[in-house]
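request received
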Amino acid sequence: MTNTKDINSGIIIIGNEILSGRTKDTNTSTLATWLNSIGVRVEEVRVIPDIEDTIVNTVNTFRKKFNYVFTSGGIGPTHDDITSQSVSKAFNTIYGEHEDAFKILEKYYKPGEFNKGRQKMAWMPVDAKLILNPTSGAPGFYLENVFCLPGVPSILKAMLGGIQNKISGGDPILSSIINLRTVESEIAKSLSNVQKENQDIQIGSYPFFKAGKLGVSLVLRY
Amino acid sequence: MTNTKDINSGIIIIGNEILSGRTKDTNTSTLATWLNSIGVRVEEVRVIPDIEDTIVNTVNTFRKKFNYVFTSGGIGPTHDDITSQSVSKAFNTIYGEHEDAFKILEKYYKPGEFNKGRQKMAWMPVDAKLILNPTSGAPGFYLENVFCLPGVPSILKAMLGGIQNKISGGDPILSSIINLRTVESEIAKSLSNVQKENQDIQIGSYPFFKAGKLGVSLVLRY
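response:
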């Protein structure tokens, strides 16, 4: 049986809109929840701007460091979408019109509507494999262990089913949550002992405030 | 006048609960919105686990790379809160009972309630300066350009007022949003020309789906 601890991943969120605070990132949570369910741990997330050198360097660092890498954002048709060209550069491969992606998009749009702007969405590493997009036509792609997904949360979510069979995870990572009506400092000492005696379980402690009441969520992961 | 482009920052979100997908990070958005308003750009965010070596290395990378660094999470009283000891190690300074922090906490709790668990919240780099916590007593701290804040969003937010005068930003980073009823591929070409002719303004294009309708938000930042 595969040891789940050995299958890890990193997520790269690409987009100035997260770094400016305008948009709250939810794709990390979507990806991480899904990855955990197929036995892949997320070890690191980086949020980076739409700058080619930064994308190239981060992709190259992550693809060596982790079993799987997921990028989100920057594969649309506008000038600030530079993920596809940057990933091509990271892999030192040709950025051009992808034959199969072109066919999918040509079929998706009504005759006469497949304009230059839309054709840009077929530009990617020419040797990439496609990730089908059941929601809005434009496919994502993957090269070796790097999976490039869009930034729009609903579209990203809809595309995960299509890559599940490309990823070899371990056992699902299980978790239980225990909610207590207490404060952390009251239980810190005994909880620390429980953690020491159960090294194979990771115990996280998170205070919460709900409806004016204080509490602590203990999250056990194994 | 300070050139805002020269004042940058990095955010380190510390916590397994974000990497597992259980909790969606909102502190990045809170910090980034506030930093932009005082003229500090956020250049990178990293989400990392509660592992000492990872925290030490990330803090040391970021404090050299950026004018300001903000950490969120891991300064509470439980066994999984290891940010304070890790930051002490990153700065090669003593992790111990901070005199002023101890006094604040001693005063905050009723007599007899300042137990061992709570006293742990006074442990930090002994030469750190404190960040006062108007909500729940336990202070954050800063050392040189690294500001350590808690992970609970409401408490983090309440503590920002207390550090505003410690940060020298440039002019506020201004932004305007134009919402259009169109799709990105229809405007991609002309928008690209507008961006080329206005290099001092950063134009971001973000598709949205609201109440079943498609649209594009253009975000201008300068």
